[in-house]
Write a structure and sequence with these properties.
The relative contact order is 0.15. Strands 1-2-3 form a 3-stranded antiparallel beta sheet. The model has no long low-confidence stretch (mean pLDDT 93). It has 17 helices and 3 strands. The protein is globular. α2 runs parallel beside α17, α5 packs antiparallel against α10 and α9 packs across α17. The protein is mostly helical and 392 residues long. The chain binds s-citryldethia Coenzyme A (SDX). One of its GO terms (cellular component) is cytoplasm. One of its GO terms (biological process) is tricarboxylic acid cycle. Belongs to the citrate synthase family.
Length: 392
């Protein structure tokens, strides 16, 4: 059917699958993993314990958590030839394509964990949960040109990632517990979020029986877009642009409102949360604490707080139900931790990994629960005959 009829297309009003992992009530600002409120998990859990919950459906017993931790921490080291892979990427490579390529390459070193038998899926789950932090840290090290470090089995999951990212071979790494805990909480907050763009990508790719590594690698690319996971990087670049251009917050908001060049208020708005993103409220508290611990107020945080205050009292944003989302404050914390903006979306991917794996496992476990093949509304030419070259 052609013509200028406008159609409401896309997945927005479609339930592409059934899932028991994450529940979101966008109007009430509710987010629960397997029934547990995100606020309680952020306060009381750890990322590895929350990953267990997201993956297996229940909070682990002491023994279960110890066994899971052992399986993950013992497998963080990667094959030496896979470590060599990072050397082929230019120093200035963005770490997201490097991470996606490294996850794809990891599947070639883990061929015995590619398959759909329960034990094989469990082995691949442990491989990815264990090695993606190492690959992420090495993606970062590639950009700094400093030597990569082996994981240290005496450290926790988060401490290993931090030390492999920032540590050097010459001296022991000095941890800052505020930073370590803040990163743990940030990863908890990113662990899953039902059928967002990257998770739907993981399910769609996996629905063809592509393996878990290929599906997660595709999810990394989907996440890299600035309208999705790349927003945390775009927020920092927006705050720096406001600071460096010397414009007022109101000038910037006016530019967004007049839509002249499609400028968006990055870190604001959400497909589902039309009230507020419960994760943003938790992250904002940590941003305050971290930046104060790092030495008083931070100019970019001040701009962010001013932007939020101005937007929340501006009809343009209130009418469109635009509130801070998970990405609005995370970049400020990541920057305070010492990560460059290019690494922010890699940190999002590290947090979202258990969710991607859990959703892929849930789909594979129930052949009737597949995204399937979407249809389309055809708006192209009606049938017409081939035109010989001399008549075109
Ligand atoms: C994540 O899905 C998930 O769960 C994702 C995520 C997860 O955990 O996986 O939560 C993570 O991706 C969070 C979102 C990060 N992205 C950004 O912060 C980029 C900026 N946000 C926008 O791109 C936008 O808000 C979206 C894409 C996030 C959501 O878009 P919506 O809700 O579908 O809104 P829309 O595109 O239909 O726009 C509705 C109106 C439009 O104005 P009008 O045409 O009605 O006049 O709101 C405007 C839009 O122009 N609008 C914005 C805006 N977002 C929407 N205007 C200015 N700034 C914005 N950020």
């Amino acid at each position: 059917k052609t013509g200028d009829t406008t159609f409401d297309i896309g997945f927005a009003n479609t339930a592409v699958c059934k899932s028991a992992i994450t529940y979101i009530d966008g109007d009430a600002g509710v987010l629960q993993y397997r029934g547990y409120p995100i606020e309680q998990l952020a306060e009381k859990s750890t990322f590895l314990e929350t990953s267990y919950l997201v993956l297996y459906g229940e909070l682990p017993t002491t023994e279960q958590l110890a066994d899971f931790t052992e399986k993950i921490s013992r497998h963080m080291v990667i094959d030496e030839r896979l470590r060599e892979l990072f050397r082929i990427f230019p120093r200035k490579s963005h770490p997201m394509p490097v991470l996606s390529a490294a996850i794809t390459a990891l599947s070639t070193f883990s061929r015995d964990t590619i398959g759909f038998e329960p034990d094989t899926i469990e082995a691949a789950t442990h491989q990815l949960m264990a090695k993606v932090p190492t690959l992420a840290a090495y993606s970062f090290k590639n950009s700094t040109g400093t030597p990569t470090l082996f994981p240290d089995y005496s450290l926790s999951y988060i401490e290993n990632f931090i030390r492999m990212s920032f540590g050097t071979v010459t001296e022991p790494y000095q941890f800052d517990d505020t930073i370590t805990r803040a990163l743990d909480v940030l990863l908890i907050l990113h662990a899953d979020h039902e059928q967002n763009c990257s998770t739907s990508t993981v399910r769609l790719v996996g629905s063809s029986q592509a393996n878990l590594y290929a599906s997660v690698s595709a999810g990394v690319h989907a996440l890299s877009g600035p309208l999705h996971g790349g927003a945390n990087q775009a927020v920092l670049e927006m705050l720096k642009q406001i600071r460096d251009d010397g414009v007022t917050v109101q000038d910037y908001l006016d530019k967004v409102k007049n839509k002249s060049d499609h400028t968006k208020l990055m870190g604001f708005g959400h497909r589902i949360y039309k009230n507020y993103d419960p994760r943003a409220a938790i992250i904002k508290k940590h941003a305050d604490a971290i930046l104060k611990a790092r030495g008083g107020s931070d100019q970019l945080l001040d701009i962010a707080l001013e932007l939020e205050e101005a937007a929340l009292s501006d009809d343009y944003f209130v009418e469109r139900k635009l509130y801070p989302n998970v990405d609005f404050y995370t970049g400020l914390i990541y920057q305070a931790m010492g990560f460059p903006v290019d690494m922010f979306t890699v940190l999002f991917a590290l947090g979202r990994l258990p969710g991607w794996i859990a959703q892929w496992r849930e789909m594979v476990a129930d052949p009737t629960n597949k995204i399937g093949r979407p249809r389309q509304i055809y708006v192209g030419h009606t049938k017409r005959d081939y035109v010989p070259m001399n008549e075109r």
